[in-house]
Each structure stands twice: as C-alpha cells, then as structure tokens.
Design a protein that fits this description.
about 240 residues; alpha+beta; Glutaredoxin; two-stranded antiparallel sheet; 6 helices; 11 strands
C-alpha cells in the first residue's frame, strides 16, 4: 500500500503533462477549424466609391469595387513610384504642399504618429502627394521629409505633372484639390487621410487634422483591415465583402 501511494503522484503528474501538451498541440487546429467553419461576428470596413456587379463564368455575379487608377509620380529621391508598386500593401494617403501655412503641419504630425504607432507593420505605407508640384521638386520634398521627421523607408512624398496629380486626386482618391488665390498659401486641398487596401480599394476617409480620429478611428480601421485578411468569409459570402451603410 505504501508503494501504491508512492507511485500514484508520479503517474498523475505524468498524465497531467501529457494532457497539457496535447491541449497545446490541438489548440491551433481548433482555432483554424473555428475560423473556417464557425460564425464570424466582427465589423468589416466599407468599400468607398462606385461598385459594379460583373457576371462570372459560373453564371453568378461578383462585385467589383472602385480601384485607385494607375499613376506614375516621382518621390523625394527622384525615383519613379507607380500605383502598381503599392498593390499588395495597405497605405494611407494625403495631399499637401510644402509651403502650406495652415493644416499641413498638423496633418504631417498625425501621419508621423501613425508611422510610429505601426512601425512594425512591414506591409503598411504612407503617401503624401503635393498639390504644388511646380515648387515641390524632389529636393524640396526631401527637405520637407527631414523637417517632419519622416522615415522615408515607408513614408513616400510624391510630385509630378500637376494635371495628373489633380486628376488622380479627384477621380481616384475622391479628394478635391486646386489653386486658389484667396486660400492661404495659394492652394486648396482636403484634410482627409485616405485608407487604401492591398487591392487598391478605398476603405475609409479620416480627418487628418484631428489627433483623436487618428488615435481611435483610423487605428481601429487599420486593425480591422488586417483582421479581414486573417479571418475568411465562408459559404456564399466567401468571395464578397459586406457593405456597411
């Protein structure tokens, strides 16, 4: 009897270790099984812009969403940057000009906040496009980037032909820009940051002059966008994205 009670704690402990290891090994499988077969309850970001139902080869319909049109501009280092270079990355875009005396410094500060907050996200980029390309040459943009303490590894400043910039601003990003003699600095542009997903679809517009909107709303939107990639839709909705009004 003494021998029996002596070995029982050892046997019990051994089974506890085996059970613990089994749980660790099974948890990932249970997690992914739940992801792919259970119900998901989380908010998905809307797609902003026109959408179109296109018939597929099976006779059904797929929804195509507005995509940022092709553009080709020059960055602060004199290198070409195109729309296609950004596909496969999430990016936040704003429009500014280097001599802006009003909202641009605040927007740059908030963009810097986002860059610092999400510095570990390798597939997240930031884009600032000038509305005064005649003045904002690559050299000027490089100086401006240094002034606002931007890390140009993933925060890119772009210039190019004025008509091309204004066209993609309005038709691509839904941002109004233009020259205005009455406006401070001679140019008008929106204060909004545009959130674009990896397929070039607009997923949100946020006031780039409001720090609390950066800290809460845009931060939450980025978290949701990354979650969309890791949690798939299922069944009839697996190739669709919910539209939230």
């Amino acid at each position: 009897m003494v021998f029996f009670y002596t070995i029982m704690p050892e046997v019990s402990s051994r089974y506890q270790k085996v059970l613990f290891l089994a749980i660790i090994l099974l948890l990932p499988g249970i997690f992914y099984l739940t992801m792919y077969s259970g119900d998901h309850h989380y908010t998905r970001l809307p797609h902003i812009g026109p959408k179109e139902a296109v018939q597929n080869i099976d006779g059904g319909y797929d929804t195509t969403y507005h995509q940022i049109p092709y553009f080709e501009f020059t960055n602060q280092d004199g290198n070409k940057v195109t729309r296609d270079d950004l596909l496969g990355t999430i990016y936040v875009t704003d429009f500014f000009f280097a001599t802006c005396p009003t909202i641009c410094p605040k927007m740059a500060g908030n963009m810097k906040y986002l860059q610092d907050k999400f510095k570990d996200k390798k597939d997240l980029r930031f884009l600032s496009i000038t509305v005064n390309p005649e003045h904002d040459t690559p050299e000027v943009l490089k100086d401006y980037a240094e002034m606002v303490h931007a890390d140009t590894d993933n925060w890119t400043f772009l210039t190019g032909a004025k008509d091309k910039i204004y066209d993609v601003a309005l038709k691509g990003f839904f941002i109004s820009v233009g020259e205005d003699e009455v406006a401070p600095g001679g140019f008008l542009h929106s204060q909004y940051f545009v959130l674009v997903d990896k397929q070039g679809h607009i997923r949100g517009l946020f006031d780039g002059t409001v720090y609390s909107e950066m800290k809460k709303d845009l931060t939450d939107a980025l978290d949701i966008l990354y979650r969309e990639e890791s949690v798939p839709l299922k069944g009839e909705n697996k190739n669709k994205v919910e539209q939230r009004k």
